[in-house]
Design goal:
Helix content: 40-55%
CATH superfamily of the largest domain: Bordetella uptake gene, domain 1
Bound molecules: aspartic acid
Order of helices and strands: HHEHEHEHEHEHEHEHEEHHH
Number of helices: 12
CATH architecture of the largest domain: 3-Layer(aba) Sandwich
Distance between the termini: 43 Å
Number of strands: 9
Shape: globular
Number of domains: 2
Strand content: 15-25%
CATH class of the largest domain: Alpha Beta
Structural class: alpha/beta
Length: 327
């Protein structure tokens, strides 16, 4: 059989509903899920909730491996080097799979074509937060403080290209400031230092912030979405707080290496969708302030189209901010 015949035979087998033997029995051993940030941050927290439910559905453990570095691009690169057999997957996000294209001239992967898309996991609003001792009590006072202290203000984030970095870049562009940038390996550790008062402020996902805001260990100035977040109903929106131009929603998405068999991607998608429909998962994500995917975003095709749109959306934003990074 020449190559064309093999492709035709494979297509015929797929159309006839014949799935490869390995896909029929999949999974027969634990699945590794790469999280491209430190433990305890927003991607890790959401991933652990979803992975636990997926493990039950799949009958095998989904084991989290935190591979942090370079704003999440180290972990994403790592996934592209794994066998496409369904035993290695990851959670990528707005940074690793959209903003990275404009930020990293030497990016070692194409965020769309080097991956098999499984589905969107969640979306999440960004909250502008600050250490408790910061002398500002609302967004206008914070903006005034930032303008007055531009040279010394410390902005914590999860590395160049992470969402905490790019979303604060947007904020800085609107306000017209360029403060000090303090990178961490995830906003889990960045949040610890914010609570300890070692850095001044952080633009972070609501899921990583809500518990600290409720506990009163940090300040929350505004949530950058159209409506208030149900997990923090007392925190105003940016429009209510006087900065309507600052609106930004970010996301986490589940991906496998390109070449992962369709039947396995379908099985993983079923497990993801079942997890997102689980009452316990829904309740925990709602309590953290995460939003579930809408429309067809939790499907492989829907996610692929969404990634393409997000890359097109973020590329001009990053270019306008004039930032690049190296990995
Ligand atoms: N998603 C990152 C984390 O989990 C944070 C970020 O991208 O800002 O730490």
């Amino acid at each position: 059989m020449n190559r064309r015949h093999i492709i035709a035979a494979t297509a015929a087998a797929v159309m006839a509903g014949v799935v490869p033997a390995a896909a029929q029995t999949y999974p027969t051993r634990p699945i590794t899920m790469i999280i491209p940030f430190a433990a305890g941050g927003p991607t890790d927290v959401v991933a652990r909730i979803v992975a636990e439910a997926m493990s039950k559905n799949l009958g095998q453990s989904v084991v989290i491996e935190n591979v942090a570095g370079a704003g999440g691009t180290t972990g994403a690169t790592r996934l592209t080097q794994q066998q496409p057999d369904g035993y290695s997957i990851m959670i990528g996000h707005t940074g690793t799979h959209a903003a990275s294209v404009a930020l990293y001239p030497n990016l070692r992967y194409n965020p769309v074509t080097d991956f098999a898309q499984i589905g969107l996991v969640n979306t999440n609003a960004i909250l502008i937060t600050a250490k408790k001792a910061l002398p500002a009590n609302n967004l206008s006072e914070f903006v005034a403080w930032l303008k007055a202290n531009e040279r010394t203000a410390n902005n914590a984030h999860a590395g160049i290209g992470s969402v905490s970095h790019t979303t604060c870049l947007l904020l800085h562009a609107i306000i017209g400031v360029k403060p000090q940038s303090v990178p961490y390996r995830g906003t889990g550790p960045a949040m610890n230092d914010l609570v300890a008062g070692q850095v001044d402020y952080l633009c972070d996902q609501v899921v990583n912030v809500a518990p600290q805001v409720r506990a009163g260990t940090i300040k929350a100035f505004a949530v950058a979405q159209a409506a208030r977040n149900a997990a923090l109903p007392d925190v105003p929106t940016t429009a209510e707080a006087g900065l309507p131009a600052y609106q930004v929603v970010v996301w986490n998405a589940m991906l496998a290496p390109k070449g992962t068999p369709d039947a396995i991607v379908t099985r993983l998608n079923q497990a993801l969708v079942a997890a997102l429909n689980d009452d316990g998962v829904k309740a925990r994500l709602a309590e953290l302030g995460a939003d579930l995917p809408t429309g067809n975003l939790a499907t492989p095709a829907g996610l692929r189209a969404f990634l393409e749109a997000e890359i097109a959306k973020w590329t001009p934003v990053i270019k306008a901010a004039g930032v690049t990074a190296s990995n």
